Amino acid sequence: MTDAVLEALRSVIGSDGVRHNDAELKLFAHDASNLVGEAGVVCYPRTGDDVCRIIDVCRHFGIPFVARGSGTGLAGGATPIGGSVVICTTKMNRILDVDVSSRLAWVEPGVLNLDLTRHVARFGLHFAPDPSSQQSCSIGGNVANNSGGPHCLAEGVTSAHVLACDVVLSDGSLVRLGGEEPEFEGFDLRGAFVGSEGMFGVVTAICVRLTPDPLDVRTMLLDFETVRAGTDTVSAIIAAGMVPAALEMMDRLCLQAVEAFIHAGLPTDAAAALLVEVAGAPSAVAADAEAIERIGRQHGARTVRTARDEDERALLWKGRKNAFGAIARIKPNYYLHDTVVPRRHLSDVLDHVYRIAAEEDLVVLNVFHAGDGNLHPLLVFDKREPGVLERVHRAGAAIVEVSVAHGGVLSGEHGIGLEKRDFMPLMFSENDLRAQGWVREAFDPLGLANPFKVLPSPAGCGDAHAHVEGLWV
Amino acid sequence: MNRIDEFAARIGTAGEVWIRGAGSRVEPPENLRTVEAPTGISSFEPDEMTVTCAAGTRLSDLDDVLAERGQYVNLGQLRHPHGTVGGALATGWNDHLRLGRGPVRDSLLEVHVVTGRGDVVKGGGRTVKNVSGFDLCRLMVGSHGRLGAIAEVTLRTRPLPRATRWLSVDDVDGSRITDLFAHLYRPSAVLWNGLVGWVCLEGHPSDIETARAELRDHGFPSQESMSGPDLDALPYRWSIAPRAVVPHVEERSGQVIAEVGVGVVHGDEVPPRRNTDAAIEAIHRRLTDSFDPEHRLNPGAGDHLIR
Ligand SMILES: Cc1cc2nc3c(=O)[nH]c(=O)nc-3n(C[C@H](O)[C@H](O)[C@H](O)COP(=O)(O)OP(=O)(O)OC[C@H]3O[C@@H](n4cnc5c(N)ncnc54)[C@H](O)[C@@H]3O)c2cc1C
Ligand SMILES: Cc1cc2nc3c(=O)[nH]c(=O)nc-3n(C[C@H](O)[C@H](O)[C@H](O)COP(=O)(O)OP(=O)(O)OC[C@H]3O[C@@H](n4cnc5c(N)ncnc54)[C@H](O)[C@@H]3O)c2cc1C
């Protein structure tokens, strides 16, 4: 990074907002994926105006910029390439306005997902998207990745909860996409922006929808002797006309790891367990819970454990949400995958996942959003083992391919980023990808916002791989 | 040739063309070549909660097939049942149960369009959850076909509610409507004309009974209502922030019925034109110039909306 750029950045947002020391540059060279790039400088704006000024400097010098929330992304979305300017939103973390009667809130992008829910809990409201990383991920990151979570089965992913985004475009202008009003003139640019992985601009304020807390909740754990019995139960529940609040599955190895970690009395000898939550008004909850128990038993559920109180419910969820902590006890490194398949293919695809892991001599655990067919195979390994990274890489690629071959998609919630960029042609034709490129160009004709992500670069257009280490793990 | 390619061939690569749905609302400008989208449901998977169909499929045909398996798809058809799937998506209008059922734009999972260049482009994917690539689906909903002619779509379905019940509540003025709204748990609609409130509750019949009893206990006795108020008499739609609804209704002299919590206000006055931001217009222009460089698709459609 040249001194002229650093000087310009310092002059527009002050020197305490501009960091250029080795420790910080190293820390911001990657997100949670270990795809390592190179940060040129790290900026901490405090306001939307600061973001405009930083981007003006980037445009002036022709340097790309990368927005970064908490860096919990798993696809390398926030990994800077070739010395980009990192715009980190952690100091833009104010909840600007809560309108309780209209059930919406304006927040800055650095507000942490769970902090918003905690803030509005006193009004009986919450922010519905609940990624397992919700204690640490930012709402700006949720918007950029269109993130999901266990409770998105019934409530929908982030896009369904975002009404407006104030965005700084790469030419330094600030625009409002969407708004509190329900209907708009023109194209749904808000909808196009959500999920754009930082490549359309930097969001500096977000208007989100808040969801009323349910009147009643029932949380159940059903366990099965085969994975197929569990996935058949999932399809049967949906076919019977129910959309539970959450429908999560853990396989045997995962149950064992989690049980050793939290001692919740999980059925460690089962092949799979389903965590089902129904929420809403009391009679509907009671009727659905009864029907789900009946469907489960018809499909061979050995036991149906219903949480008796809030403590037990919290314990069951703790098992689900802490699976990542639990696996650290098996091996030091993990690679978490994310694909979606039609629900009815879940158990066939899982069979393939087990076979692929066995062929590569890897340990695999599965803990995933079964209700929407969103697989999360977790490959655990010790990266000090010689050759293990190549095996993990091959297994990951095989899992993506088998998912797409079963009518599935590349990612359900983690995004494409760098990780899956070169798999895009598995799902999309050249025409499809060109059209996605048009949308990016419409927002960012200069191509300065987080370049080299999501869309595979046509041959000869500069190879981003050259700048990235550790692709895949 | 499959039906999508055949549709693309009919649209061709040159000359202005109007994609016609059922023509139920918008008639093509005179002398314009018209092309109709293919029809037919290619697959309905109740246990996936998805349905794939061609864009010319009638909403009523789709409703019938889904209802046999206790499902529906939210395309705003409660207000406007006679159109086609493509017409409903191209216009993107919502019906008055948006509060509970969400917007039409959330129903579209995968779309195949024919661009102005004559290419077939797919966006999204058939699974109920997907973040692979940029969201072309949402861009197409409400685009009036100006970016692409919709050929085939995969839609998210939902279970039909166990019961749907309309109630009306008298003597609800501006000081009471917010209170009425706050006492309801996730109603499907709350409509209000400044004096009367209409509430649509969906779900388990005994939950609906309980909600009704609680309303009474809070000072809001209700009567059964067949289907809520008649909105057809109010031709214009205003779109305002939900928090502005009460003052808006109180200030209007003409007839209005507002969707509380949503911000659509039906009325007999023409809504004001809104200013568009120059930067937004530039994004619009770049989009149309890429998808339809000669601006040959649906010329004039939604013109007052898309500039
Ligand atoms: C243990 C663990 C569990 C997880 N569980 C889930 C889960 O259940 N569901 C799920 O969906 N994800 C999950 N994730 C992934 C991750 O937490 C989400 O993608 C999250 O939304 C990222 O937020 P972040 O603030 O960390 O974003 P970052 O990683 O900092 O950035 C992610 C992307 O967003 C862009 N971005 C960030 N801020 C802005 C902004 N202000 N404007 C424009 N672009 C911006 C970045 O450029 C990047 O492309 C998990 C991750 C971990 C480590
Ligand atoms: C409550 C309510 C009120 C409404 N009021 C109005 C209104 O006042 N004015 C209004 O214009 N609409 C209105 N609509 C929208 C109306 O529902 C749609 O126009 C209707 O669904 C169109 O269906 P159709 O098949 O008859 O389309 P058509 O009337 O034939 O076409 C409507 C528009 O969609 C385009 N179109 C149709 N099919 C396709 C396709 N496959 N690909 C691309 N573009 C396509 C047409 O070119 C045209 O611009 C309203 C909708 C609702 C829910």
What's this entry about, in short?
The complex is a heterodimer of chains A (473) and B (307). Chain A is α+β, with helices and mostly antiparallel strands. Chain A has helices at 3-13, 22-27, 48-61, 113-120, 139-145, 152-155, 189-193, 227-239, 252-262, 282-298, 310-321, 323-327, 346-359, 388-405, 424-427, 430-443, and strands at residues 18-19, 39-43, 65-68, 84-88, 95-99, 104-107, 125-126, 162-168, 174-178, 202-209, 211-212, 216-224, 246-251, 272-280, 303-306, 333-336, 339-340, 363-368, 374-375, 377-381.
Write the layout of secondary structure elements.
The complex is a heterodimer of chains A (473) and B (307).
Chain A: H1 3-13, E1 18-19, H2 22-27, E2 39-43, H3 48-61, E3 65-68, E4 84-88, E5 95-99, E6 104-107, H4 113-120, E7 125-126, H5 139-145, H6 152-155, E8 162-168, E9 174-178, H7 189-193, E10 202-209, E11 211-212, E12 216-224, H8 227-239, E13 246-251, H9 252-262, E14 272-280, H10 282-298, E15 303-306, H11 310-321, H12 323-327, E16 333-336, E17 339-340, H13 346-359, E18 363-368, E19 374-375, E20 377-381, H14 388-405, H15 424-427, H16 430-443
Parallel strand pairs in A: 2-4, 3-4
Antiparallel strand pairs in A: 1-2, 5-6, 6-10, 7-11, 8-9, 8-10, 12-14, 12-15, 13-14, 13-18, 16-20, 17-19, 18-20
Helix pairs in contact in A: 1-3, 8-10, 8-13, 9-11, 13-14
Chain B: H1 3-11, E1 17-20, E2 33-36, E3 41-45, E4 50-54, H2 59-67, E5 71-72, H3 85-91, H4 98-101, E6 108-114, E7 120-124, H5 136-140, E8 149-156, E9 158-159, E10 163-169, H6 174-182, E11 189-192, E12 197-203, H7 205-217, E13 223-225, E14 236-239, H8 245-251, E15 256-259, E16 264-267, H9 278-291
Parallel strand pairs in B: 1-2
Antiparallel strand pairs in B: 3-4, 4-8, 5-9, 6-7, 6-8, 10-12, 10-13, 11-12, 11-15, 14-16, 15-16
